Amino acid sequence: MTSVLIKNAFIATADDEQPIIREGSIYVEDDRIVEIGKSIQSKSAEYIIDGKDRIVLPGLINTHVHLAQGILRGLVPDNVSLIEWLRDWVWPLQGNLDENIMDISTKLTLLEMINTGTSAFVATSINARYGVNRVVENVYRSGMRAAIGKQIMDIPGYADHPQILHAGLIEDYQLSLKIFNDLFSRWNGKDDRIWIWFSPRTPGAVSDELFRTIAEIVREKNSGVTMHLAEVRDDIRYFSGRGTIPGRFLKEVGMVGRKYVYVHGVWLNEEDMKIFASTGTSVSHNPSSNSKLGSGIAPITKMLKYGVNVTMGTDGGPSNDDYDIIREMKLALLLQKVSNLDPQAIDVFTVLKMATYNGAKSMGIEKETGKLKSGMKADIAVFNTRAPHMFPRLQPLSNLIYSGTGNDCTDLIVDGKFLKKDGRVLTINEEEVYEKADEYAAELLSRSGLKYWM
Q: Domain of 271?
């Protein structure tokens, strides 16, 4: 049996029954939180963390991650709109990825997430050319939890832009189904940390028939779906041309329900929100990406009002440009306050739940993780408060979200095991990643026929 004791810490639990515990302690045995509270019985433990200068959160959950884009950071212009950004830069780069480059991109992305306190994530758009089993193997070895979305499509378009997808990313849907089934058989449910989902390309790249096929398989296997949706006005124009709206269309083809996570949702209307709320469908909010690409501000306060399960995501390397959920929470708060012209539009407790419990709910694992409570899995992120930007420390949660970054994380525990300890990531070879990342990125840029843009 392994045991961990965190003592005398400021604990933000994301649990409505006891949201804040000052000078609290958490005792962990093996993979579970055994006891948490203001004063727990004196315990001895294999590992003890003195929480005097620490704030403790549930492990953060990132519901939109592009593993293939960690290595694209800085390679794509920061002043182009989404369609041009995809067509002229992101897709040519991803269409020239090979397994070795993807290996380093995956490790780089995982390394950043662990380093900044993320314990679980939803990965999108895993293409066959990336070496899918190697990708999943890397995620598994990292110690994180993940729902990994296998890309599937049968039309090389985007919304109402036909034949736009880069040739290197086009994949026969029968091959995609075979790979999904192989991955599902080998990996799904492994150690209660890995799940295999579908990641359809956006409407305009997937036929109605294929959407229905995906929905049927998801029901049979109790799998899940993650997909970009209503990110830009082009998406809404596509649905309008078919006489419908996103939520209504998805309900008609059976693509709504628990473990359906739709990303961005910037242009969803009230009817969409009501459909999502009534079916338990989730929306992943990615404010940095939406801001950088000029896509708009997602109306998440309205979604929450209607009962939609709203979560937090970072998106990818060239659209954010980080995988740090702490930074994402701050921007989510600021954008909702300014877009609603109301400083009370949203608060830190709401956005913390979006980044923890709501994320777990979207993945179907909220009974096991997403809050700090006795009996839950020991998925715990610890952050340093002894730094100039964290003082005075009368309100540590507000300080962390508004003033801190994920780099304030000192320790990350998943399933009772340290993935980061005393400021050092334990499950990924950092030097290997750093040694190869620059070289592989330059090679990818050259192979794609692109040039440095600045």
A: 60-363
